[in-house]
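Review box. Two proteins, two foldings.
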Amino acid sequence: MKYISLIWKNTFRNKRRSILTVLSIALSLCLLGLMMALYHSFYFTEPTADEALRLIARNRVSLANPLPLAYQQKIAAVPGVQEVIVLQWYGGTYKDNRDTKNMFARFAVEPEKLLKVYPEFEISDEEMKAFLSERTACVIGRKIANRHGFKLGDRIALTGDIFPDIELTIRAFYDSKINNETAFFHWAYLREVVKMDVVSTFVIRAASPEDVPRIARGVDAMFRNSPLQTKTETEQAFALSFLGFLGDVKLFIMAICGAVTFTILLVSGNTMAMSVRERVREVGVLKTLGYAPGAILGILLAESVFISLIGGVIGLAMAQGLCLLIRQAPPFVADLSQLSIQPPVLAISLGVAAIVGVVSCSLPAWGAARRPIVEALRATG
């Protein structure tokens, strides 16, 4: 710390090069931080208390293969099951799919069971009563309503793809910290239109977290020898399965992180090597004044780490801004409404920045610190 003033002055002695180096590291750390934030959001985010109690039962083969509606009563009889609700994907098109703001999930459900399975949804009693009493009614997330300017009583016309066209009336809005970009309407209404006795998924609410693994095993064991077997998994695992449609997301993110780190090393290493070569004579002067090789090495490394950390902080601030933008965008294959730079991601990213600073400068700094005084003073830079 006693050399901090000297380190600070030397860090920005060549302002143009230092600023360009900081910006290069910042852009790289921005991408690295964003990728790590996505990775953390996908694979390390703990489910909420309500999410931890929910399971999804679907056809073992794929979501395209439905399950008989009769399975619902059998699932409800499994010990530990508190409630089972139909969750039938509708899909279709609202206005124009080329505009991403028109993309939001639409599900047919049993309205009287909605708040039993999703108690975190906040709906006023008056609006919930209106939703229950009208077969063409729907309840939508507040975020969708704000995006489109929907009001109670507005009608939504959906053009079906595998199902016929339907028209819904907005009778309620719901608020939720997560999963607040979905429209729910009456399962009975869809059955009237389609005359179907099959369903894509069932949502199961367990009585306690301890019951969740037992329910998953029990449901799948019940239908193991039937023509239509089930795959029952937690709500979080079900959501992650959609990422599999994009390929090996884990490998993709890790490959990007590795490439970004390697790029930072190249940029930073070249810059630090140039900086040290220009200061070989100064190193000789410092040795003449009594500075030990270890102290000189520490000063040079500290300068490199300092530049890397400044770039890292700026880059992570930029990454946090990108996270805020992504949170406002419509959901794609995962709920990113809570995406942010979490403390573990922040610590790892800054650690990478510090390591890059040390590694990129270690060899040239080590060589400069070991040079004999006479040879260093003769250097021309």
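Next protein.
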Amino acid sequence: MEGAPLPFSQTPKEEIKKSYEIKQEDDNFLINIKIINQDIILNVLDAKNLIKEYEIQLTFDELKSLHKIFFALNSCQDFIDFIEASIQNKKILIKENKESGMTIELKVEYLFKQNIISLDLNKKKMNFELTAQDLYQKISNTNEICKSLEISNNKLIEENNILKQENKKLKDKYLELEEKIILIEKNLMNRINNLEIKMNSCNNEIISLKNDNASNMIAFDSKIMEKNEFSMIHSAIEKKMNKKIKKLKKIYQATKDGGDPITFHKLCDGISNTLVLYQSEGDRRFGGFTSQCWKSEGGLVSDKNCFLFSLDKKKIYYSNEFRISNKLKYGPDFCYNDCYIIELDGNALKNEILKTSEGRNENIFDGDENALSEDGDYKGVYAKEYEVFQIIFE
């Protein structure tokens, strides 16, 4: 009859079919949803193990009875939207259980509380022919994928080999550049060192010229020391005293004022910062500087600023143990500890051995013949001349 309804036994028409892929940690699952009239078929396939396939089948009314949250659903399409939203919001978890098969857990908020809805799936009873056909198709797809992966892998191997060759070239170029950089650095360091040496030499020459200029500008009258020899002593005095020399004032000359100790003490006592120059009969020229005052009594007086020198050898002798001797019957005497280095008794000199900064023993009278002093107490050399200058600072 035309317009008559279809028989109830006619195969129902499939209304909706949806598939979703879920990745969680190392697992990869495929969810298939079929809606046939009011029947819902939920199928889960393990992508790693194609034999593991589970599903659950229930009517729309059975779905509503699972949880109160499903009361709000008006159609099967609403359920599909609910599953899709859960997947997008990562509120769906697939768990495999050896005893019960597989479970889908849905995290939902209901009445301001977190709720978990569990859907237990059973292992699918597959038709052998259909299963074999599906497996064959999946294996074919897998083979195609493998071939594609193999081609991609071969390309990657070729690209990797090219990259290795390029990397080797770059490494060789890097080593070559590194060697050049090292060579450039060595040459640069040598140039810098040479420049530093030249600069130090120039600085020393400048300092020397400054000292020579400063010492040459200071007027003094000496029968023992030349003006150009004063530079060495000038630098040593300024370094010790940390002051600039303004001028030299001669306060005593033995051949002019009288070589006796009494005259020396009369003209020099009470005066600090004095330079004493000696000249032996053999024309050995030497002397000393002291910042302490000369006195007619008081014995040995320590002076940390004191130093001795030899004009002939162009050397200065430093020691924290140098002292001056204040005795009326002696002229300007310099001592080391309790030993007299320069002892003037009348016109006779006595000299002990001095140690240089290099540790060598030296005698500043070296070359003069020994002679008896006037009182005959010891051997020494005669003093041809000696002078005393007062150092006046700025």
